[in-house]
Amino acid sequence: MCGIIGVLGDREVAPILVEALKRLEYRGYDSTGIATVQNGILDRRRAVGKLVNLSDLLMHDPLPGKSGIGHTRWATHGGPSEANAHPHRTGRVAVVHNGIIENFRELRMRLNGATWESETDTETVVQLCANYLDQGLPPREAAAETLKHLKGAFALAFLFQGEDDLIVAARTGSPLVVGYGQGEMYVGSDAITLAPLTNMLTYLEEGDYAFVTRAGAEIYDHAGRRANRDMQRIEAQKARIDKGGYRHFMAKEIFEQPTVLARCLGHYTRGGRVVIHEGEVDFTQTDRLTLVACGTAYYACLVAKYWFEKLAVLPVDVDIASEFRYRAPPISKRSTALFVSQSGETADTLAALRHVRDKAATVLSVVNVSESTIARESDLALPIKAGIEVGVASTKAFVCQLGVLANLAILAARQRGQIGAAQEAELIRILQGLPALTSQALALDDTIRRHTGTLARAQTVLFMGRGAMFPLAREGALKLKEISYINAEGHASGELKHGPIALVDKTVPVVVLAPRDGLFDKTVSNMQEVMAREGRVWLLTDRDGAKQASDGVWKVLTMPVIEPLFAPILYAIPAQLIAYYTAVHKGTDVDRPRNLAKSVTVE
Ligand code: F6R
User: Fold this and answer.
1) 598 belongs to the catalytic site
2) 297 CB under 6 A from ligand 1?
């Protein structure tokens, strides 16, 4: 999604802005731009496509100035073109924007004398602000007045002609931070954007706006009252972003999983017992658990449903956030709502959280970014401890989300009297063994790399699994399609013959996720049905499963033996490697797949 940077520097800012835009690339974008003020003169440069195009432009046509704003745009209103790229500006003000101005049509009608350069919603902000400047309001007041008329979700940074020492920053719905440097001040979409510049940050709250000058930031709340917001020191490691010698962030993040999973699991257990703020999570008072998320995080919720139901005998609903928020799901005061989000900023998940805020007894979240809006608006936020995830395709966050959810299910089981201390200790022992098993699963790396050439040539790939492996089949398919652009579907093994098996012929690889569990024989029967139709089966199973069911299988990947309940955590690893190497074979942009954004901050 769009990214914002603003710098009031004591040196030329164009190179600083471009470096910051590099750090925003991971969020996904299709055009870039910067604007500066030099001796009061406002100017800008914009380019479609990769950031290198903007850098090239700046080589030939530099943009001087010590004050500036920059933007990576992920197109929403209007396609990727130079005219639609940010910053938008009139002669007097330039604006960069992340989010959507929902009432832009109405504003365009009101501003009927204006000349429009773009198809964007953002340009209405610029025109409105210019209108107030024309009426004689000074820049700060003009920006503040503009904000009053905007509806939707947005983070904004304004830069003004004639003002070398002012950026107005505002947030409603989309995150924005103010950074403090040595004689310099910054505005950015997140801590990563500002990482090498400063680690002293203030997170603006909902409805806040700030007048940022080199002397500091004056922050006001949504009602225009002066607000005190904490300045936080962000751990350096939280904002470090490098590939660590790997070719892609995704590969680095896949291989980090044993370490981050161990850290995540260690955070929630002590002495054979789950330790989660007991006072704040009480499953004895809960008669329904509602899990809500998007994409990969949604699949983590679907896996967790099996755990909560089996271990804690707790009824569970799982919903896609964008559907949940517009339905009228009955939420009782005895229900717990849990939101799962890597970024903690996904617009739909956040809106769903706000939708149940006063309805459910408890609102929990499972997040990677502890400072995120979803974390801050929950009664209790449980961090997944995965570290920054840069690859657009979520990998380590998924596995750590499952780690937290497994612990939560064990806690619920204990609190609801479904398991005793010995059983709890045993479940935790199994979970604690997972980081070592994920290391063993990563040893399949080379085998998978060598065999994914055939997958890369496929038009369609199917994934199938039963029980908690069904959501993992869907996650495996999502991973493959998003980075390799191959049509991939994940199905419940038992459902295949109710429709999807019509797709199967000798050109269709079918990945079967089948740890040797109570449903293994049934999955193998479904696999036979696929092979009878010449489908090319990739069987992921353990040693015993491989002995029993390898005949006629095109490729067997032998996995370590694992207690079936938690197998989705382990089997996520080969599913990710299959997607990764297929994409590498196809030569796609693995870390920045087309059309996708890392943090989806618009509806
Ligand atoms: C897929 C992927 C997305 C995200 C989804 C939710 O690999 O990363 O499907 O899982 O956009 O994002 P978060 O977890 O940040 O709410």
Assistant:
1) yes
2) yes
Terminal C-alpha separation, the chain: 11
The reply to whether ligand 1 has any atom less than 6 angstroms from the CB of 346 is yes
Evaluate whether 383 touches 267 at the Cβ level (below 8 Å): yes
Pocket test for ligand 1, best of 394, 401, 402, 595 (most atoms within 8 A of CB): 394
Ramachandran region, residue 476 (left: φ > 0; alpha: ψ -120 to 50; beta: rest):
alpha
**In what order do the strands lie in the sheet containing 316-320?**
316-320, 288-293, 335-341, 362-367, 380-383
Distance between Cα 297 and ligand 1 center (Å): 6
Q: Is the CB of 342 under 6 A from ligand 1?
A: yes
147 lines ligand 1 (CB under 6 A): no
Task: Give 224-246 pLDDT, tens digit per residue.
Answer: 999 999 999 887 555 567 788 89
Place of tokens 């999570």: 281
pTM (2 d.p.) = 0.83
Q: State how far the Cα of 587 lies from the Cα of 457, in Å rounded to an integer.
A: 12
Q: pLDDT tens, 124-179?
A: 999 999 999 999 999 999 999 999 999 988 999 999 999 999 999 999 978 899 99
Strands (E), 256-334: 269-270, 273-274, 288-293, 316-320
